[in-house]
């Protein structure tokens, strides 16, 4: 495909990475450690990507990887390490001892934007190249052996071309990379849930030592944390609801009703300084490779946040990709690149299954029959009373083995 306007400047790298989210930034770090040249193109500013509030939970192997890569110092100082989570339903709380059930793997709460800050700072310090605020990003020639990415450094700057051997599409669900795979080749699978999450950040001390996932007749609620001073909480809501309908009083009253149980524990309130509503979907695009383009992270798949898997899956994809590219550049081998999509999809579908299972089990779906709702409560009861079921939940939550 030819560029729509003439390209005035040309740059070259081995791997062109579109998107500086967790997928793009981890990939850049992994490739640079292997001596592979790459450039990251990001449409937002550095401040924007460093301030976007998203995920919170890291799988144990991601924590280990960050430490092995020398990127984990602040996470180890400021992150929260929990041995388990609490499931709350029918007015009762049940502790799931994740560490005890998985040979010591813990639940790490360290916000995604903190990971982004650490990765951006280390990459730039190390001489890595991230172009922030680029526009008009278009992928060209992905079916040829000379792909390129067209972009502008500033909205009225010239159209430039980044020529590369390979393109990594790490530009999230709404980015252009997935659209560069012809529709006839793409197989897309999707579930859109009839509920969303209203998330808040509040200035308050922690109310509880670990995360609480609650299934309540008024709907799901989740208590998480960010720091000794800031807490993150979510409540199930209508995904089309207007945040203006949610006064702080209404939010606190729903959180109290849904999170508090019969044992007298109470939630500590604070000033709410951020609130928003997100819709929820499950989505997978197969295959994740087309010619010289590889999709990674949310560009290829979405999970509802209930299983805390999205960021972790993005890192898993790019670890597989970096190993395949390493084998290609070190010994000309292409088997890893050919297997990329299939290898990633095996893990992705297990995470899709787990996230869908946690979501359907913990939320109240107005479209479900009373029979189905009873089955979800029975499922919760089974999970907290069977060591086998509890272990299955725990090993998925802390992260299935990478190899
Ligand atoms: P991202 O993070 O969306 O990054 C994509 C980047 O690409 C840029 N981009 C472009 N750049 C250049 N040109 C273009 N045309 C571009 N279009 C887009 C974007 O600006 C952006 O910077 O995708 P990535 O790297 O694949 O990472 C995925 C994760 O961000 C996502 O899966 C998680 O946030 C999901 N998630 C959670 N994941 C977890 O592992 N644990 C959790 O606890 C967890 N909780 C959550 C979550 C997501 C949430 N929201 C808001 C959807 C909780 C929430 C509320
Ligand atoms: C969060 O802290 O933002 C968080 C925690 C657990 C989840 C999702 C989000 O399942």
UniProtKB/TrEMBL annotation:
Name of the protein in question: 4-hydroxybenzoate 3-monooxygenase
Xref: InterPro entries: FAD-bd, FAD/NAD-bd_sf, RIFMO-like
Keyword Lyase on entry: no
Keyword Transferase: no
SUPFAM superfamilies registered for this protein in UniProt: FAD-linked reductases, C-terminal domain, FAD/NAD(P)-binding domain
The FAD-binding domain, residue ranges: 12-355
Alphabetical keyword list: FAD, Flavoprotein, Monooxygenase, Oxidoreductase
Stored NCBIfam families: PRK08243.1
GO MF annotation terms: FAD binding; oxidoreductase activity, acting on paired donors, with incorporation or reduction of molecular oxygen, NAD(P)H as one donor, and incorporation of one atom of oxygen
